[in-house]
Amino acid sequence: MVLEQVIPRFVDWIGPASLRYIASAAVAAVVAAFLAWLAQSVAAGPLAAGDRVYRSVLAGLADLAVPSPRRVWALARLAVQESLRRNVLVVLGLFALILMFAGWFLDPSSVDPGRLYIGFILGATSLLVCLVTLVLAVFSLPADIKSRAIQTVVTKPVRTSEIVLGRTLGFALVGTCLLAAMGLAGWAFVVRSVSHSHVVDADDVFEASAGGAGSGRTSLDRGHRHRVVLDASGNGVAETAHGHRHRVTVSGTDASGRNRYVAGGPLGILEARRPLRGTLRFLDREGRPAAKGISVGSEWAYRQYIEGGTAAAAVWTFDGVTPEEFPGGLPLEMIIRVFRTYKGDIEAGIHGTIQLRNPTSSLRSEALPIVAREHTIDSLLIPRSINTVLANGELREVDLFADLVSDGRIEVWLQCLEPAQYYGVAQADFYLRAGDGSFAVNYAKSCLGIWLSMLVCTALGVMFSTFLSGPVALLASLAMLLVGQFREFIARLFTSQITGDSSIVPGGGPIESLYRIVTQTSITVDLDATPAVQAMKTADTLLLAPVRLVAGLFPSLSTLGTSDFVAGGFDVPADLLAAHTAEAFGYVLAFIVAGVFCLKAREVAS
């Protein structure tokens, strides 16, 4: 999961975001007024066109100033009744059908079943809710205009703004009810699908001598089994596999006097971790600071690699580490990818070490051994009392916070021990578990993100329906949403062109990409800095500048979604949710205002 972006505090974000929103709205309004003036100038001349545009703007602002809540609610009720007449509730039956047959296509033996089921449910819910409300919004008003049913409304004392607001509110209410039903059904489906247990047969457990610990394995269920570690009393844990673990307890003895073991439900599969993240830097194989790790040839450069059996290391620096925040020690969790130059024992994992260092005094702890395995989140609890390595090589026990933490900062060093093997990490892969939230609340937060996307789709559809026919409005809405999905990519591509850092987006702009296709040059190969290449890159930058500006006006539904957090088991930050809410309502406001002016300019009564 990619969670590399820094999430600012909402109070720090809202100021600059509001200024950008006001500036974008002003530019869009000026451009729209200029285009309207050009269109009117063809028929009425420049002076008359300016007068018409001026009067239309004043009339539209007056219309928006004082909408009647009573009339808006009445029109919203009409929109709800219209949706029911169109049998919109059929979509709930479709969703139920999807849940009934989802088990045929979803593999319960997946290496991360929680991510699989949660991602599927949230994705299906978002697609159905947004698509249904969008179709209702784009076809409703054009149908009323075509059948002249709109005349029964506009001949009454109803403002244009109330028509647009009523339609948007009514279809949003329908979408909200659909989302509530689908969200509850999806929640039940996820909980039921991931719930399972294992049998721990006494023949598969090797008990140690008295006072020692035992080990064994569970039965093979859902395509996996767990290694079991038991304490002297016979209780223990089925270690993490496929993203979860189980508690194992003794429930008496069998006829032969051997312990009978019971494995509980899955743990760690439906969680809402609250991570404290650090900043990452690398050391090369000689132990010198490096700008980044080693590339193993993957085009996706999100993770960088460190070489095993050398002084290469990945170093995270954590801030805000206090004994009040972590009274029981540091619960470190990590995601480590492995690149093997030779296969070896694929199930054994690759050995490495974790070491803590004081960023000020360079006092370091003893190396703590780890084994990196793919497709799992490993955890390591670092105790308050830990041994440190003195200059003469001796070990001395110290207090974690008193000796290794300096002004709330501590360094965590990761090294790979096995030569010719590599560890792959990203900045978000190591974190301190600062607490846990409720998974149910986290799931509800993700449903709120779907609700925001639905609200944007509804307002967008109503806006286009004020001046386009139903099918054309649907195509225009889908096109705008499709371009919005590439908004972040366009922004990163423009940044890559400006800074010259091809690692942000390899391959360059449109002209460079075409050149690479024709010459069959890989996107990972840097082009020679010839005058022709420099001219090509400059032209790409000039082409991308207006595209970047326009793409920023388009809504991105993928940005509003938070399913990656929920599927990955991380709590959705409140600051991120507040920023998404403000962004969504900003788009809704802009679409409603645009819809009012478009409908005002249309001769609906003729």
Give the SSE map.
Blueprint: H1 10-44, H2 46-65, H3 69-85, H4 90-105, H5 113-146, H6 151-154, H7 160-194, E1 205-206, E2 214-217, E3 227-230, E4 236-241, E5 244-253, E6 259-263, E7 273-277, E8 279-283, E9 289-290, E10 304-307, E11 313-318, E12 330-334, E13 337-340, E14 350-357, E15 364-365, E16 368-372, E17 378-382, E18 385-389, E19 395-399, H8 400-404, E20 410-416, E21 421-425, E22 430-436, H9 439-465, H10 470-485, H11 487-499, H12 510-519, H13 531-551, H14 557-560, H15 563-568, H16 574-601
Antiparallel strand pairs: 1-2, 2-3, 3-4, 4-5, 5-6, 7-22, 8-9, 8-11, 10-21, 11-20, 12-17, 12-22, 13-21, 14-16, 14-20, 15-18, 18-19
Account of the 3D structure:
The protein is an alpha+beta fold. The chain has 16 helices and 22 strands. It has helices at about 10-45, 45-65, 70-85, 90-105, 115-145, 150-155, 160-195, 400-405, 440-465, 470-485, 485-500, 510-520, 530-550, 555-560, 565-570, 575-600; strands spanning about 205, 215, 225-230, 235-240, 245-255, 260-265, 275, 280-285, 290, 305, 315-320, 330-335, 335-340, 350-355, 365, 370, 380, 385-390, 395-400, 410-415, 420-425, 430-435. The strands form 5 sheets. Strands 1-2-3-4-5-6 form a 6-stranded antiparallel sheet, with no helix packed on it. A 6-stranded antiparallel sheet has the order 9-8-11-20-14-16, with no helix packed on it. Helix 1 (about 10-45) runs parallel beside helix 16 (about 575-600), helix 3 crosses helix 7 (about 160-195) and helix 7 runs antiparallel to helix 16 (about 575-600). The chain is globular, with a radius of gyration of 30 Å.
